[in-house]
Write a structure and sequence with these properties.
about 65% helix; about 5% strand; disordered C terminus; mainly alpha; 8 strands; single chain
Length: about 750
């Protein structure tokens, strides 16, 4: 790679972007103005909302003597309020005909109050039953009589139970936010009034109030002394905003550098230059990274300063520590590179700037779950979460902002490795997008569903297209989601059998077979329904046997890294107990044979054949394995199924047949079922089993490391046999054509741009 060419392209793109006044305004000016204006607006809005009163209808207001007052001067008593809340925030309207003075019956006033709240005349209503005052007075007298009769109770007299008091009722609606605010305010007032009455009753009984409140809880906040005051607030906001700013700051320059150049007609001039496609990509990538970093830094500084000024009145909020800010700057570089490469590859696919801007929503939808996941309660930085792209970066920055440097140091190598790997994959994807003439010079397509459907049915290819494979995989995932949501887990083994067979036949096999006979003209070639070499079947079976110990250890490792949730563990235990008590032959047919046939037809048949249109064998294998893993509902199963899907797809490609994969699938699932049924009694009955494994604590068996290593070593033999096979490629499996590099690669790029 000629870095002089990269530098020339970088300078060209930066100069072009700097000439655009809208770009400069969005990057440099808007962040400096947006957050101060937003802070002023928030202060004004907060000031406005603090003084909003709520109208409350009071029905059946009681007149109570010798009790702490609840109402004073047509408002709640001021003694019941503390802090910023005042009685003026509750605008009370007393309904005529109080319940304590012989008003109408109970249902009439309550129904009328409910109707007025529903109509919006009042935010809430406070309803007192008709006999509330009398019952409360009777309760108070009963307490006094109980105190006076202590001596009599000592002579054997049983105390009388105080009468039950009907509860007041707050009528509100959750459909209205102001009504919910009124409910919170009313419930707080009534709780404080009830507490005051309880304290007086204790005093009248001769019991000190300190009997139920023996001590007052005190707290000591160490955040101020440690320099992490307000770290909880900054750790939840700054990492998330950092990633979102880096993504949005990279997207629009990438669209202009790719789709914008297509519209301006300058992309052809750049592609005809002596620069390699990788040099062009790196020049544009550095430009997008530069604008992404500048945008993020300016937004970060403006938001931090504005937020600190706005929240300076709160003692619990302070500036983030300098070490944390330095960590944000270090993390910004790989994050900006990752998002810049992704946005550049997506923008290269767009035909116009307008189309490129439409792609921002899918990119955000794919990124937001990874960004929002660290905000969930209980999600912390550990080995499993550090291996998730983007999520690990957010959790690492959270630990640094909160001052947990030791945990951040422990998992920073894993986070860095995963982030750099994702950056490498994204950059490589962007380079391949620029190397593909079909991507850079796509023609506009007219949307005519009828014409497209007729062409699909009339001009059917021998094997499915890439779009058909993706549609099939997405259809299976959606159908499985709705099917599992519509039908609850089976209660018995017969119900489980019916549910499992229905899922395999209708959800997985049916879409693949339907699309095969509808969109292709050679189902046999699409589904790889041909006789393999005679040694392929025993080789696949032997491979499944020798890899079983490694698969069992892998399952244990995955369960250790990503433990099963407490909500899911009881259901899985029920299924395991069902498997242990069921007939083994029936289980092998339902769990072994049925998924092997149906899933192989769908994922290694139709979907793999469609992905082979990419022209790259291993990409087709990996993409089909990803769909295979996603089709399993549980995360732990998905990870293991994805790795096994790579082996199954490799067997299908190298043998040119679906049969070896079906055999491997059946043997693997059968060994898992047999493994789960092995108990300590089985090892006592067959002592030879202890040469290969030992009984596990919760059933099943545990393989020692020598057996696992020896089995993995033996697996090299069947894999080597499959690797030596040279299957004929599919009829339409043609590698994509790259743009030819022009002659004169050593010429200068000074004239470009």
């Amino acid at each position: 790679m000629n870095f002089a060419n990269v530098k020339l392209i970088l300078c060209r793109e930066v100069r072009d972007q700097a000439r655009d006044r809208r770009t400069l305004f969005m990057i440099a000016v808007l962040p400096l103005l947006l957050y101060p204006l937003l802070g002023v607006s928030l202060l004004q809005v907060a000031q406005f909302t603090q003084h909003q009163s709520t109208r409350v209808l009071v029905v059946g207001a009681p007149h109570l003597d010798n009790l702490p007052p609840l109402f004073e001067n047509q408002r709640f008593s001021g003694a019941l309020f503390a802090g910023r809340d005042t009685a003026d925030l509750l605008d009370l309207v007393f309904a005529p005909g109080e319940a304590g003075k012989g008003g109408p019956d109970r249902l009439g006033p309550r129904a009328a109050a409910q109707a007025q709240v529903e109509a919006g005349s009042y935010e809430a209503a406070l309803y007192f039953p008709a006999d509330f005052a009398a019952r409360l007075q009777a309760f108070r007298l009963a307490v006094h009589h109980a105190v006076e009769g202590r001596a009599k109770r000592g002579l054997g007299c049983e105390p009388t139970a105080p009468p039950k008091i009907p509860s007041p009722e707050i009528i509100y609606t959750t459909a209205n936010e102001r009504s919910q605010v009124a409910y919170v305010r009313l419930s707080g007032v009534l709780q404080r009034w009830t507490a005051v009455i309880g304290d007086e009753n204790l005093a009248a009984s001769g019991v000190s109030v300190r009997a139920i409140h023996p001590f007052a809880l005190e707290s000591a906040d160490l955040a101020g002394a440690s320099g992490h005051q307000g770290a909880a607030l900054w750790s939840k906001t700054l990492p998330v905003l950092l990633l979102l700013w880096a993504l949005t700051g990279a997207f629009y320059p990438a669209v202009d550098l790719c789709a914008g150049e297509k519209e301006r007609g300058t992309l052809e001039t750049l592609l005809s230059s002596p620069a390699q496609r990788s040099e062009i990509v790196f020049g544009k990538l550095l430009t997008v990274m530069l604008f992404s970093i500048v945008t993020t830094v300016l937004n970060l500084l403006s938001m931090a300063i504005t937020g600190w000024i706005v929240l300076s009145n709160l003692q619990a909020v302070g500036l983030p520590p300098l070490a944390a800010m330095a960590a944000l700057g270090v993390a910004l570089l790989p994050i900006a590179a990752l998002f810049s490469a992704v946005c550049l590859a997506v923008a290269a696919f767009a035909r116009s700037t307008k189309e490129g801007q439409y792609y921002l929503t899918p990119v955000l939808m794919l990124t937001m779950p990874l960004v929002v996941l660290p905000m969930s309660p209980g999600v912390e930085l550990n080995l499993g979460n550090s291996l998730i792209p983007v999520t690990g970066v957010v959790l690492l920055l959270r630990c640094i902002l909160e001052g947990d440097y030791w945990r951040a140091l422990q998992f920073s190598p894993m986070v860095a490795a995963v982030t750099l790997a994702a950056c490498w994959a994204a950059v490589r994807w962007a380079v391949e997008q620029f190397n593909s003439e079909a991507v850079l010079f796509r023609e506009s397509e007219r949307l005519d569903l009828g014409l497209r459907l007729r062409r699909l049915l009339r001009d059917r290819p021998a094997t499915p297209t890439l779009a058909a494979a993706v549609c099939c995989g997405v259809a299976i995932l959606i159908a499985r989601f709705f099917f599992s949501s519509a039908f609850p887990p089976a209660s018995g083994f017969s119900g489980f059998v019916r549910l499992a067979l229905t899922t395999q036949l209708l959800v997985i096999a049916a879409p693949a077979l339907l699309l095969t006979f509808t969109l292709t003209r050679n189902p046999r070639q699409t589904l790889l329904l041909k006789r393999p070499a005679w040694l392929a079947v025993p080789a696949a079976a032997a491979l499944a046997v020798v890899l079983h110990p490694a698969s069992s250890v892998l399952q244990s490792v995955v369960s250790e890294i990503y433990p099963v949730s407490d909500q899911l563990r009881p259901a899985m235990q029920v299924v395991e107990e069902m498997f242990r008590s069921a007939n083994l032959g029936t289980l092998i047919l339902v769990i072994g044979l049925a998924p092997a046939v149906c899933e192989e037809l769908a994922f290694r048949g139709f979907i793999l054949s469609g992905f082979r249109r990419l022209g790259y064998k291993w990409r087709a294998i990996v993409y089909s394995a990803l769909f295979f893993g996603l089709a399993h509902g549980i995360l732990q199963q998905s990870l293991i199924a994805c790795l096994l899907g790579v082996i199954l797809a490799y067997l299908a490609v190298q043998s040119g047949s679906l049969v070896p994969g079906i055999v491997f699938h059946v043997v693997h699932n059968s060994l898992v079922l047999i493994d789960s049924r092995l108990t300590a009694e089985a090892f006592s009955r067959w002592p030879a089993l202890r040469l290969l494994a030992s009984p596990g604590e919760g059933g099943g068996c545990v393989f020692p490391w020598p057996v696992v290593a020896f089995g993995a070593l033996l697996a090299l033999a069947p894999l080597a046999w499959f690797a030596l096979q040279r299957p004929a490629p599919l009829g339409e499996e043609v590698p994509p054509q790259a743009i030819a590099r022009p002659a004169g690669g050593d010429q200068s790029l000074a004239a470009v741009g």
